[in-house]
Design brief:
single chain, about 50 residues, mainly alpha, 2 helices
């Protein structure tokens, strides 16, 4: 679930690079996506 949300946020961030109307929200989405990916990876590592 977290991975899906992170992927969606990364896609939105990439789209925002070409549409500057989103402004700072795009960078916030990128930070959230990176945090979610890190949390997802940590959960996978802890399970192993």
């Amino acid at each position: 679930m977290l991975l899906l949300i992170a992927i969606i946020l990364v896609i939105l961030w990439a789209l925002g690079l070409f549409a500057f109307s989103l402004g700072g929200l795009v960078h916030i989405a990128l930070v959230l996506a990176v945090i979610l990916i890190i949390v997802w990876l940590l959960k996978k590592i802890v399970r192993i």
